[in-house]
Amino acid sequence: MATGTEEVSVGLRSARGKVLASLMLASGLVALDSTIIATAVLGITNNLGGFAQFPWLFSIYLLAQAVSTPIYGKIADTIGRKPVILIGIGTFALGSLLCGMATSMVALIIFRAVQGLGAGAIGPMSMTIAGDVYTLTERAKVQGYLASVWALSSVLGPLLGGIFTDYLSWRWIFFVNLPLAAVAAWMLVRHFNENTPRQRHRADYLGAGLLTLGAGALILGLLEGGQAWAWNSPTSIVIFAGGAAVLALFAFVQTRAANPVLPLWIFTRRVVIASSTASMLIGAIMVGLTSYVPTFAQGVLGSSALLGGLTVGALTLGWPLSASQAGKVYLRIGFRATAAIGSGLAALGGASTLLINQQSSLLQIAASCFVIGSGLGLVATPTLIAAQMSAEWTERGVVTSANLFARSLGSAVGIAIFGAIVNAAVHHADHPAAEQLSPAVHKVFLAVAGMAIVMLCASAMMPRRDATTA
């Protein structure tokens, strides 16, 4: 049990408390956005049209976040964390403003990419700054504070999203980010000071461009395949083959670049590989459930946007509650055992979603989501901390960004796969009936359960705590 002195040394009342509060506010931007938009999917598509296109709202955001995260991490290791996170907050706020003003689905998709570019800096920089400011033991307590942001967002996000969609306008799910971004930036400018020598840095723009093009081509092929063109058509073959070729070229360029956007040395460390694999699967599972549980609740069970959002809110509530305790667990039993327990819980929750049907209650769905979220919280924290502990200060930004890059990429590819599955099952209907939507989303639940089992295997590759702190 922590003493009062230990609690004050890492709490909001400590000398570093204002920095911690700043990180909590910054993290709140991404946390709230991840929960608030899921409740508004049907409201947006009813207003702007394009149900078959709605996965792009997630995939373009996540792709932009994924490809920019390693760049921000590399720059942060050179010029410092503070300017990078401030740029991210500003970009995220601009994207939010543009999204709220969008008048078509295409425009909204484009502006979501701007938001993603901002989120690509906010998430990893918050984690990296925490890794710089606090020791391993202190970070176990700090995770409780950062997890509380996600816990609060898991309640406020669906609540606000449902209220805005049902009673005001879905546009407010983006406008609400503006005052939060202003306060977060002001807090960081005022209270976070770092003395990092600025160095000349040559960003790997070629690598970033190739990564964007290659990953974008694969996502395009997944989302539009079977809809805009047949899966076995020449167009589909060219897009997938071209995307794979560009990604192969990206890997080659990384071996020649002076400051590679994604250094290949990170793939030589077992802890980073295992951590990134688990993170990728976490991203796919999260986006699959947050995208399609509210859709199932509204489109199949006939619930309101508010109730649909609160149902999936159980997922994002379970995560921070378990993550807040993950530090105590991995300090006692190690990284690998903690991640394995979490993966087992996620697999159990994933299996329970297979029992969901048109007669299921919202409480049953929420219970499954809560178990999955609780498991993910026990996986995400120890795998990230283990990867950070394996790196020096000059590498920590890249390692942290690689972990979050994997999560974003997993989310981007995951939503593309889930979107392709659902669109094919509903025969690309713009307003699918409940009889079509129910079996379609059931396939998403099946895929989620399978991913949780694979994550359990990745967790077994994690080292014990002493393997990375020795």
Task: Write a compact overview of the structure shown.
With 470 residues, the protein is mainly alpha-helical. It is 79% helix and 0% strand. It has 2 domains: 15-192 and 261-469, Growth Hormone, Chain: A, CATH 1.20.1250.20; 204-260.
What does this structure look like?
- With 470 residues, the chain is mainly alpha-helical.
- It folds into two domains: 15-192 and 261-469, MFS general substrate transporter like domains (Growth Hormone, Chain: A, Up-down Bundle), CATH 1.20.1250; 204-260.
- It has helices at 4-10, 17-36, 41-48, 55-79, 81-100, 105-133, 136-167, 172-175, 177-191, 205-224, 234-256, 270-299, 305-333, 335-352, 362-389, 393-425, 434-459, 465-469.
- Helix 13 (305-333) packs parallel to helix 15 and helix 16 packs antiparallel against helix 17.
- It is globular and about 55 Å long.
- The relative contact order is 0.14.
Shape: globular
Looking at CATH, the homologous superfamily of the largest domain is MFS general substrate transporter like domains
Major beta sheet summary: none
Structural class: mainly alpha
Assembly classification: single chain
In the CATH scheme, the class of the largest domain would be: Mainly Alpha
Distance between the termini: 25 Å
Approximate strand percentage: under 5%
Number of strands: 0
Number of helices: 18
Helix content: over 70%
Order of helices and strands: HHHHHHHHHHHHHHHHHH
Gyration radius, to the nearest Å? Answer: 21 Å
CATH topological fold name of the largest domain: Growth Hormone, Chain: A
Q: How many structural units, i.e. domains?
A: 2
Mean pLDDT across all residues, rounded?
78
